[in-house]
Structures are given as C-alpha cells and as structure tokens.
C-alpha cells in the first residue's frame, strides 16, 4: 500500500475510534496535531511517514478514560498498523513515540532514555495544542468536565505539587496555567516549535492579565 492510502485509512480509523471522545481529545485535536506536525516536518528532517502515523495515533486511547491503563493506546496502534501490513521497524518507532509522548512522561523524566527527531516533532505539536487560544479552551473544557472552579483565591497555584496532591486538591482550572501550561515553552524540542511556542505563550500571559483584571484579583 502506498503511504498516502495508508494515511487515509489511518485517518478513517482514528475518526471512528474517537467518535465519542471528549472535546480536548477528539478528532479535531488529532487533526491539529497532525497538521502542526506536517508543518514542523517542512523545517526539520525526519521520517515523514513515522511522524504522521504517530501524530494520528498518539491519543487513540487516553489512559484517563481507560482506568489509567497506559498500555491500551500503544496496543491499539500496533494492532491497526499490523493489520495494514506496515513494516515492523516503522511500527516499533510509532509505538515508542506514543508511549513516551505524553507530557506527564516527558516532563517528569520518564521518557528520557529514548529520543528521536520524529518523537520530538510530534511531542512539540501536541504541546503547542495545549498552549495559546486552543490550549485555554481545552483547559477550561477539562476543568468543566472535572467540575473544577474557574479560579479560587483560597487555593493558590503550586507548581511543585505531585500529581496525586493535585488531584486531591480540587485545584481550580486557572492554576493549571501556572502548574503546567506556562512551563511548556521551556520543554519545546525543535527550533520551529520553539518559535511557535513563543507566540502562544505570550497569548496566554495576555489572557491571564485580562482574566485577573476582570476578577479584580491579582496573583
Ligand atoms: P495529552 O494531550 O498529552 O493527552 P493531557 O491529557 O494531560 O495531555 O491534557 C489534555 C488537555 O487537557 C490539555 O490541553 C491540558 O492542558 C488539559 N488538562 C489536563 N489536566 C488538566 C487540569 N488539571 N486542569 C485543566 N486542564 C487540564
Ligand atoms: Ni494529544
């Protein structure tokens, strides 16, 4: 099968699988990460097929909605790619990228042992989607899903909190900016990704400025 029809089939598979996904991880998130990855590919040299397959399959099964099981996504991706007769070397690389990509893994150091240009590109594209206007929309969407307050001056942001403490704290959504979203800029891998991150980072800062002016609070 040629690469274009493989990518077409992958797009169909992902669209069907994510039919009922919540707003932050639906097909349109995948489409944005896919398009940003293709854009980054124009400036970085990497294997285009691996990058595009990994972008399309990276959130095929979010552990948050599978009882925390992080192995389901990589397994589903492998099953699909095997059924399409993709060569083993490409499958292994795509699966590795999916395993190591989430920012949980990379920011707290787990995925350090393996890296590749292909991983760096898809990871940058995924991080960019958590920043800027879309990133703001996704954060409040997630907070609404978790029934979190928009802001609460009695719970100040604490970037040093562990994931468990964070979950138990019922932290309001605005804290997520200080605990994660404003830190993403520093974790960008590629030169093009870094440039794109600057603009989205600044947009979040402007947004937070306006947010606190409107609430009459300051942080
Ligand atoms: P990934 O895209 O790697 O699956 P996550 O599942 O951690 O990343 O996050 C998906 C989206 O939900 C991101 O835009 C992220 O900012 C947002 N999000 C995750 N955790 C929170 C939270 N506690 N509060 C607000 N938004 C969150
Ligand atoms: Ni993602």
Automatic annotation (TrEMBL):
Pfam families: HD. SUPFAM superfamilies: HD-domain/PDEase-like. It comes from the Bacteria. InterPro entries: HD/PDEase_dom (IPR003607), HD_domain (IPR006674). Residues 26-131 form the HD domain. This is HD domain-containing protein. It comes from Flagellimonas taeanensis. The lineage of its organism: Bacteria, Pseudomonadati, Bacteroidota, Flavobacteriia, Flavobacteriales.
